Amino acid sequence: MNDFGLKIGRSTKGGSLLSTVRERGLADIFLRYFSRCELTETRTEEPCANHGSAKQTLPLNSNGSNGARTPSLFTKASNTAIYPRVAAAGVAPCEVPRWKRILDVTCILLTLPCWLPLMILIMGSIRFTSPGPIFYRQERVGYRRNRFMIFKFRTMHVGAETRTHEEYFAHLMRVDCPMAKLDGKGDSRLIACGRFLRVSGLDELPQIFNVLRGEMSLVGPRPCLPDEFQRYEAWQQQRVNAPPGLTGYWQVNGKNKTTFKEMIAMDIFYARNMSVWLDLTIMLKTIPALIEQILESRKRSRAEKSRQKSIIRHYR
C-alpha cells in the first residue's frame, strides 16, 4: 500500500485540465459576476532571528514585490518556492499522480450544483452583515515547499488582531497538547456568521479554486504558514511531500482532539500511502466529521453558558 499512490498513472504537473476552454469560460463568468468581491491578504512576517539555518524567503512576484497585487482566483500562481524544491528531510517526494488530479476535478464538477449555490449564499451573507471584502487570502506552504496564496471566506472584521492565534499555535507546537480552537462564542473579532463558518469548515470552501488552479487537492495535509514551517523539525517537514488539501486524514481522525505531533504523523502517513481508495474514504468521512464537530461545538458553548450563569448566581 505504501507505493500504491506513487505507481498509479504517469507523473503530471497538475492544472493541465484547467486550461481547457470550458473551465476558462466558467472562470470568466464567475469573475465577471463577482468582480466587485475584493480580496484581502495578510502580511507574513520575516523569519525569526533564531531560525538562521532556514533560507531566506523569495519575493512572491518577479518584480520583487511582496505580493500586494491581487491575483485572479483562477490564474495559476508562480512556482516560487520558499526553499529549494528538494525532498523534505531527505525523503524523495513523487510527482502528483494523474489519478489525483482527475479525481479532484471530477468531484468538483459533479458537485457544482451543491457547492456553488452555497458559496453564493455565504458571499451574500458576508456582504450584508459586515463591511469589507468577502474573501481573505493568506500565504501558505504547499506541495514540495512551494508557496501560494490560499483563499478563504473572511470571518473576522477588517483589521482584526490575529497575533493571538499565531502565538496560540506556536504554544501548541511546543507543549504538544490537544489542538482545540480559540474561536469561542463572544469573540468580538468575528463577524455575525464567522463562528459558524469556522466551526463548520465552510470558510474553507473558496479553496476549491486553489484546487482548480493545481495548488491544492481535495484531500491532503492542511497547508501551514511559512513561519510555522520554519519551526518544523526535519522529520515533520515530510508532510509537504503530499499536495495540501481541503480535507485530510487528520481531519477525519480526531482533528482538534489530537496533538500537533499526532497531526504531523497522520499527514506523513497519508503522504506515504495516498491512493484512490484512501482519498474516497476520507471524502466520505468528511461530512460526518464536520457534523460531529458542529455538535461538539454547540455542546461546549452550552456548557460555557451554563458555567457563566452559575458564576453569576454565586456572586449575587
Please characterize this protein's 3D structure:
There is one protein chain. The protein is mainly α. It has one domain (4-315). Helix content is 42%, strand content 7%. The chain has helices at 4-7, 21-33, 98-110, 112-129, 163-175, 194-200, 207-212, 226-230, 260-273, 276-315, and strands spanning 39-41, 135-141, 147-153, 217-219, 245-247. The strands form 2 sheets. It has a 3-stranded mixed beta sheet with strand order 1-2-3. It has a two-stranded parallel ribbon with strand order 4-5. Strand 4 (217-219), helix 8 (226-230) and strand 5 (245-247) form a beta-alpha-beta unit. The longest helix is centred in the last third of the chain and has 40 residues, at 276-315. It is globular and about 65 Å long. It starts with a helix and ends with a helix. The relative contact order is 0.14.
